[in-house]
Design a protein that fits this description.
The chain is α+β, with helices and mostly antiparallel strands and 190 residues long. It folds into two domains: 1-59, no CATH class; 60-174, Arylsulfatase, C-terminal domain (2-Layer Sandwich), CATH 3.30.1120. Helices cover 20% and strands 17% of the residues. The protein has helices at 24-31, 47-50, 116-123, 152-169, and strands spanning 63-67, 70-76, 79-82, 85-90, 125-130, 133-136. The protein has a four-stranded antiparallel beta sheet, covered by helices on one side. It is globular and about 55 Å long. It starts with 23 loop residues before the first helix and ends in a 21-residue tail after the last helix.
């Protein structure tokens, strides 16, 4: 994120603390002296980071990474865990003509199959499965060396963070419904 606010944000200041777009609402509310919504929100106020007063996010218990309703990963400090899930990989050489990899060799499934396999079949991807994986981002920013088996305590800590989110937000990978979810595309004015 790049931010500019002369007289408030120090020029040239950089920060490597991860933030996420859901932090913008509570931050802007704080800066505007506006109340937060009554419903629980997932973001936190990052004003002190934005203004260069701090390099840590207070009151955050990990960053969670969802793909749709699947809780696929959690990051906490230098650690990031990926839970087993399917993902897409380009199937062959990428093209420059706007056509998908493997064009002419695709065996597309029906458009009614909107799952990951259907998407892969129509757009030049193959489906792979990622196992439980733990990475130390301070030494492996490319997430190339899975160290889960050597760090069971960290795996447990991050899994416990994930379980907290699963209870409230759900996780279709675990067939869990969240207690604080609402249908997509709805607001609470009805």
């Amino acid at each position: 994120m790049v931010a500019r606010w002369p007289g408030q944000i120090p020029a040239g200041h950089t920060c490597s603390t991860p933030i996420i777009s859901i932090d913008l609402l509570p931050t802007f509310c704080h800066l505007a002296h506006a109340p937060l919504p009554e419903k629980t929100i997932d973001g936190v106020n990052i004003t002190d980071i934005l203004l260069g007063k701090s390099d840590t996010v207070e009151n955050r218990d990990g960053l969670v990474f969802y793909a749709g309703s699947e809780l696929q990963a959690v990051r906490d400090g230098q650690w990031k865990i990926h839970f087993p899930h399917k993902y897409l990989v380009v199937n062959g050489e990428t093209r420059t003509d706007g056509k998908p990899a493997g064009y002419g060799r695709l065996a597309p499934q029906s458009i009614s199959n909107s799952g990951i396999e259907g998407i892969a079949s129509r757009h030049g991807y193959v489906v792979r499965e990622l196992p439980l994986s733990l990475y130390d981002l301070s030494t492996d920013i490319g997430e190339s060396k899975n160290i889960a088996s050597a760090n069971p305590a960290i795996v447990k800590k991050l899994t416990d963070i994930a379980d907290k989110y699963r209870k409230t937000l759900g996780d279709s990978l675990q067939n869990m419904k969240g207690t604080e979810t609402r249908p997509v595309g709805r607001n609470d004015r009805t």
